[in-house]
Amino acid sequence: MAEKKKKSKESQGKKRNKQGKEKRENKKENREKNPKNKKNKEAEEYFEQGRGHLKKREFEKAKDAFEKVIDLDPGHPKIYSYLIPVYHNLGMDSNAVQSFKNAVNIDESDMAAYYNLGMVSLKKQQYLTAKKLFKTVIDTNKRNVGAIFGFGIASYRTGNLKAAKKCFEFVMKADPKNTAAKKYYEQISEQDK
């Protein structure tokens, strides 16, 4: 009797696996036929191209690729986060700020957008804005070395040396190869004497 139940469960499991496989194949077929999904696939291809250009610091090419993604898929979850540093490096800071707003409208928890605009704010010497943006990232991930480093620089530049020193200590422990954190830490230590 137990053996019959076991065989029955096995055959039911095989039947479910077969049905599941058929459903997945049907979904795949439908996705391939759906023109919207073809656009999404094309958008992903441009997105990857843009990432490659960004990595090589080819900002104009990255901008072109990322803007094609927006044309194909304006709700792409990461596109606006990637456009922030691209626009900034091309001197298009108002576009960078708008990209941040778009990113947060799509996904309020997009910490890459907060981080990237924080970096832009640092470069523009808008230290209080940078601190707020980095703090948002740190509040969601207390171990985000990049955000802590950025917060440390902004704190240093606004005269909060105690907070800056604490940030640089953390960064040096988490990333011993970070020579910039070490330099800032040493500068603060000299000022403490």
Molecular structure report:
The chain is built from ten helices and no strands. With 193 residues, the chain is mainly α. Helix 4 (79-89) runs parallel beside helix 6 (111-123) and helix 8 (145-157) packs antiparallel against helix 9. The chain is elongated and about 60 Å long.
List the helices and strands and how they pair.
Blueprint: H1 2-33, H2 35-55, H3 59-72, H4 79-89, H5 93-106, H6 111-123, H7 127-140, H8 145-157, H9 161-174, H10 179-192
Helix pairs in contact: 2-3, 3-4, 4-5, 4-6, 5-6, 6-7, 6-8, 7-8, 8-9, 9-10
Uncertain runs: 27-35
Number of helices: 10
For the record, give the distance between the C-alpha atoms at the N and C termini, rounded to a whole number: 85 Å
Report the biggest beta sheet as strand number plus sense, adding barrel if it closes: none
- Mean pLDDT, to the nearest integer, reads 86
- What is the β-strand count? 0
- How would you describe the shape? elongated
**Succession of helices and strands:** HHHHHHHHHH
Which percent range fits the helix content?
over 70%
The CATH topology label of the largest domain is: Serine Threonine Protein Phosphatase 5, Tetratricopeptide repeat
Number of domains: 2
Structural class: mainly alpha
Q: What is the H level of CATH, i.e. the homologous superfamily of the largest domain?
A: Tetratricopeptide repeat domain
Strand residue content: under 5%
Given this structure, which CATH class of the largest domain is correct?
Mainly Alpha
Radius of gyration, in Å, reads 24 Å
What is the name of the CATH architecture of the largest domain? Answer: Alpha Horseshoe
